[in-house]
Write a structure and sequence with these properties.
Elements lengths: L1 E6 L7 H11 L3 E5 L10 H6 L3 E5 L7 E5 L5 E5 L12 E6 L2 E7 L9 H22 L4 E6 L23 H11 L4 E2 H5 L8 E2 L5 H4 L2 E2 L2 E5 L1 H4 L2 E6 L15 E5 L1
Parallel strand pairs: 1-2, 7-8
Antiparallel strand pairs: 1-14, 2-4, 3-4, 5-6, 6-7, 8-12, 9-12, 10-11, 13-14
Helix pairs in contact: 3-4
Keywords: Hydrolase, Magnesium, Manganese, Metal-binding
GO molecular function: DNA binding; double-stranded DNA 3'-5' DNA exonuclease activity; endonuclease activity; metal ion binding
Pfam family, one: Exo_endo_phos
Length: 256
């Protein structure tokens, strides 16, 4: 079973890139972030035409998450992250597919920091941690994947000294990610590639992709029931170089 996550950075504007990648890479399940489309504008038919059923949580202009599946319609179990009824951002959707619970998330960026946006990021992180703790109590395999907007260590960022005050790399953000992982989650990429330089995002500015001046901010966290079945993982780095592509590359894992 091949599962991928991809911050598509506008599902309609980059639809040709998404469809090409789906056909070439052929993952079984895909989690998308940053749809930048209201609920009624999601390109369901185009995605169905290449073999994927979908559920999605849209929002006009920004945010938005979706789960695509080759196994038929995903069984939705959660829409929106619990814990704050006033939070209307479309940043979390969860489904059961093949007896695996898959949470697709788009964690807030948080810049500028400090400030209200950073406070929201940390509060959202805490809500995610509380929800994740509940998921760990069950015996079902669980995957939490998406754009976490955090570089966990200096190994995950090109020239870390330039990022010390950024919301994605501040000590509070990295501590929040560590607190989440320490519940008992496995960082899939680091499990298989503990010492490699691996990036999932390259800015559009200053030839970042060509210079490989990237960040690793798209992550797979696996609970113990599924971590032991992890077989392979990688980043489809070349997709970032396609014309009119997202500034993220798809990340994937394979489980037995």
């Amino acid at each position: 079973m091949k599962i991928a996550t991809y911050n598509v950075n506008g599902v309609n504007g980059r639809l040709p890139v998404l469809l090409r990648w789906l056909q070439e890479s052929a993952p079984d399940v895909v989690c998308l972030q940053e749809l930048k489309a209201p609920q009624e504008k999601f390109p369901e038919k185009a995605i169905l035409d290449v073999g994927y059923h979908a559920i999605w949580h849209g929002q006009k202009s920004w945010n938005g998450v979706a789960i695509l599946s080759k196994y038929g319609q995903p069984e939705e179990t959660q829409r929106g992250l619990p814990g704050d009824p006033e939070d209307v951002h479309s940043r979390y959707i969860e489904a059961t597919i093949n007896n695996v619970t898959i949470g697709c998330l788009y964690l807030p960026n948080g810049n500028p920091a400090p400030g209200p946006k950073f406070d929201y990021k940390l509060a959202w992180f805490e809500r995610l941690t509380q929800h994740a703790a509940g998921l760990l109590k069950g015996k079902r395999p669980v995957i939490l994947t998406g754009d976490y907007n955090v570089m966990p260590t200096e190994k995950d960022v090109y020239k870390p000294e330039r990022w010390v005050n950024d919301a994605l790399f501040r000590p509070e953000t990295r501590a929040a990610f560590k607190k989440l992982v320490d519940q008992g989650w496995t960082d899939a990429i680091r499990k298989l590639y503990p010492n490699d330089t691996i990036y999932t995002f390259w800015d559009y500015f200053r030839n970042a992709y060509e210079r490989n001046a990237g960040l690793r901010i798209d992550h797979f966290l696996l609970n113990p029931e599924i971590a032991k079945r992890l077989h392979a993982a990688g980043v489809d780095r070349d997709v970032r170089g396609w014309e009119k592509s997202s500034d993220h590359a798809p990340v994937w894992i394979e489980i037995n």
